[in-house]
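To whoever is covering the structure queue this week,

Two jobs came back overnight. Logging them here so there's a record in the thread.

Job A:
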Amino acid sequence: MRALWSVLFGGGAARIRSTIAAMSRAAERGSSQMNVYSPSLAAASGMADVIGEDGKVVVPTEVEDAIRTLIRWSGDEPEREGLIDTPKRVARAWREYCSGYASDPGVHLSRTFEEVGGYDSVVVLRDIPFQSHCEHHMAPITGTASIAYLPRDRVVGISKLARVLHGFAQRLQVQERLTAEVAQCIQDNLNPRGVAVVIEAQHGCMTGRGVKTHGVGMVTSRMLGCFLDDASTRKEVLALMGRG
């Protein structure tokens, strides 16, 4: 499975070695978030796409071959009618599932507004649906997130908070890191008095394999600033999120 992923998103051994070297250099510099967007890492991993005349991403031959290998290993025949075009479909689907690697979610917070009529209370966006994939089994993660911040002197359009969430979710993830990344991105770009992120999600690696237990929701939270330091403020924001 790891070899398949390397072919799908590495573009060959040379690109893979280059990517590993770039990640090692980042680690040596003390980077604590290896899932954060970096133009140099994106280039090293061969993320640039070629668009065909039909407007669709051109799927490299080695990617199609890798998916055919997986189909055969699963016990089916990739040349039969129902599967003949599956390698291209799967490759393009994964490009979309992992489109978050191609951009920095923080760009969505670059446009802010200072004229908010003196509003200085909590801003909450509740129950934002999202989908991601776990980095351990590449199985779906589906859930909702509630995001809140206490502005200092500026706010953003509410859709931007959802875009930040989706930008990080469209990568291979673990829920704990996703929660922390969304919160830290808002903190770094808006410098609010506080940030709170609560995510509840179901994991396909638990429902579709292994223990095969359905209906279990995993809840993670990240509190920064006043929501971390002040119990009454934290209680208020959790109540606004419907978790009081």
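Job B:
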Amino acid sequence: MSSSDRIKLSIDPGTWGPMDEDMISLDPIEFQSEEELYKDHIDFYQRKKGLIEAIQIGTSKLNGIPIAIGVMGFQFMGGYGIRVGEKITCLIEYATNNFLPLILACAFGGARMQEGSLSLMQMAKMSSVLYDYQSNKKLFYVSILTSPTTDGVTASFGKRVIEQTLNKTISEGSHAAEYLFHKGLFDPIVSRNPLKVF
């Protein structure tokens, strides 16, 4: 599902107000693979997907309640870079300053290697402002993990990695969403259609 489709599914019709649409990806380390330049790769995805980046942020209403919302799209390079981190940070700061509930829908594989450690550093920046939003300001935050969402940390605790490292067999289904839900790792598993009313 694209980020645009998820936005339409998640908010009240006619209430979407996009933010920071002019904030686009850069090529800070002038990354070049054998096939193409990174900036050409970004241009290709911008034309193909009709988006400028892998996240759309903005304000909206959900069941009549004003919210700040960010929706990521895996189809745009599958990961996050500097600009995605900046957009999320700006959205969280906006929600904090305006006392708005915050919703972030995640669909990512991790930091973009083409932007080096600058991409990875976004995690610390986003976590810092989100900590202030939740812990200091006590505002309402909902994190929606969509498919596909992966990351290096949880991937290193995956079934195959554990079995190869410990030389032990792990029970089938031990890393499925339902199993992790029953163990308290996250709140309910909800199909996307009733998510808005949930």
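Note for Job B: The chain has two domains: 3-151, 156-198.

Please reply-all if you pick these up so we don't duplicate work.
Q.
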